[in-house]
Design brief:
The chain has helices at 3-28, 41-48, 52-64, 105-112, 139-151, 166-180, 194-206, 221-228, 274-287, 345-356, 361-373, 375-401, 429-438, 473-492; strands spanning 68-71, 74-78, 125-126, 189-192, 212-217, 233-240, 243-244, 255-260, 290-294, 319-324, 336-339, 407-409, 416-425, 441-442, 444-445, 461-467. It is of the alpha/beta class and 499 residues long.
Length: 499
């Protein structure tokens, strides 16, 4: 094509785009109303001094996008039902009625769940549990490993295996044996988008509408939501200083699984005793029920080595182990894993495949590199020391400012504790939260983590969940000082309390 032809074609395309854009704008702003007959292509071409082919191409583009209606032997018209402002089809009056969307039964159950938010944008000092300090992230080690993975040249880029890259699963197998006393094959490990996806897979693959699941009371609300969304019913089972009370486990064929947090019960911090662990395993074997062990913070235990996982005691392949990197690295990373009984491996892999194909491969290999080099375990040891300092600061601050009116429990492990306030009742928690937030301190009531919060609300003392992993020791000290003043004000002013 010579230079003249190239310029001519470019000029033609430019004229076509201008005609198209002008007509579309006139249709969208209502200048050309629905049903308006357009000028014929021949007349438009003569008027603009362009070829008829150029005008025809513009009309055809408008027709293809639904702006113009054409038919053989008839003039083109502006399509009916166009919105003068946006060019979109005008909705019928019925579509403007305030009707709920048509959802599946699953969607209806999800829509009925209470919103779950942990955001306190006004909190200058936020005791948000699940939060970790950004400065604790091993940024330099991660950056180096990520750059190494990024410059590797694979023959092509393609989807990975749903179970996760073999390199990370192999590194995890060795790590779990060392750190958690957990023996498994790499085939049993499934890499997921954080523990939440792991819980969702468990819910959808193991529960049917009408089934029952044993759940800690109080317990991790996002796990309960996953299970309830399937149409199954929670059986809230009390926890005490030794964890889940196994004396009340039901002999009921409808019970398909039990969810537990044995290393550091969420939220109370209780450690599941050996005797109760054995009783739970026996119960699951009799019932042919599954146990979901959520080991969300098992790496953080203070003064003693971390307690081995419940899965390490399982001789009947009933335990599904759920692990996460959210507490040791970052909740923003969205990488976790399941260790599955062999008979569940295939179905979980296929469910993961149809859900999202696989978890991010680069991040998996970066994490594998950190574990293989020992960087990850050195990071966990350093992080344990840092969080021990924060933990000690919280204990000392409560002792200094709340002696006699507050008691911290569940502080032997994990990254949060529960502050019990005997002088206040459970229904005072939200008043206390609001008053603290006005002073710039974010604290979180215990009540929402009960499946039945209204029961025994008058008898139960007020409780606040205090996460400390995202704060400095100075912030912890200041935050508890302010919280103590708010508590004393509330205790001294019964009128401000909820009656």
């Amino acid at each position: 094509m010579d230079q003249f032809s190239a310029k001519s074609n470019a000029s033609t395309r430019g004229a076509q785009r201008r005609i198209y854009a002008k007509l579309r704008a006139q249709i969208e702003d209502g200048t050309l109303a629905p049903g308006t007959k357009l000028v014929s292509t021949r007349a438009m071409a003569a008027e603009l001094g362009v070829s008829r082919t150029t005008v025809t191409a513009a009309y055809e583009q408008l027709a293809a996008e639904g702006y113009v209606a054409t038919s053989v032997g008839k003039a083109a018209r502006v399509a009916g039902g166009m919105n003068a402002r946006s060019g979109r089809a005008v909705a019928s009056p019925a579509q403007y009625e305030d009707l709920p969307p048509v959802l599946s039964l699953y969607g209806e159950r999800v829509a009925a769940l209470k919103p779950y938010s942990m955001s306190s944008p006004l909190a200058r000092i936020d005791f948000k549990y699940g939060s970790v300090a950004s400065r604790d992230f091993p940024a330099l080690g991660w950056q180096r490993a990520y750059q190494t993975e990024l410059v590797k040249r694979a023959p092509s880029l393609y989807y990975g295996q749903p179970e996760g890259d073999s390199r990370l699963r192999s590194a995890l197998q060795s790590y779990l044996r060392r750190a958690r006393g957990l023996a498994c094959d790499t085939e049993q490990i499934l890499v997921v988008h954080g523990s939440q996806q792991g819980l969702d897979l468990c819910a959808r693959l193991l529960l049917n509408p009408g089934d029952v699941f044993v759940f800690e009371e109080p317990g991790y609300r996002m796990a309960r939501y996953c299970f309830e969304a399937t149409g199954a019913t929670a059986l809230p089972t009390p926890v005490d200083a030794s964890g889940l009370d196994t004396s009340g486990l039901p002999d009921d064929d409808r019970v398909r699984l039990a969810y537990v947090t044995p290393s550091h019960q969420f939220p109370t911090g209780a450690v599941f005793s050996i005797a109760r662990r054995l009783e739970l395993l026996k119960w699951a074997s009799r019932q042919r029920a599954w146990i979901i062990e959520d080991d969300y913070g098992g790496e953080f235990r203070y003064g003693q080595r971390p307690i081995d996982a419940l899965q390490s005691m399982d001789t009947d392949a009933r335990v599904i182990y759920v692990g996460t990197f959210s507490k040791a690295l970052s909740p923003e990373l969205r990488l976790g894993y399941l260790v599955l009984p062999r008979q569940l491996v295939h179905v979980f892999r296929e469910a993961k495949r149809i859900t999202d194909r696989h978890s991010p491969r680069w991040e998996q290999n970066v994490l594998a590199s950190l574990i293989e080099s020992g960087t990850y375990e050195r990071h966990v040891r350093r992080l344990r020391r840092e969080n021990e300092r924060r933990r000690r600061a919280l204990l000392e601050a409560v002792e200094q400012h709340l002696a006699g009116c507050g008691q911290l429990v569940g502080m032997a492990a994990g990254l949060h504790g529960v502050l019990l306030l005997p002088a206040l009742r459970a229904h005072d928690e939200f008043t206390l939260q609001a008053a603290s937030l006005k002073r710039g301190v974010g604290v979180y009531p215990l009540s929402p983590l009960f499946a039945c919060p209204a029961l025994a609300a008058n008898e139960r003392p007020a409780g606040l969940i205090l996460g400390y992993a995202g704060l400095t020791t100075q912030e912890i000290q200041e935050g508890i000082h302010i919280l103590a003043e708010v508590i004393q004000d509330l205790i001294g002013d019964p009128g401000a309390r909820v009656g």
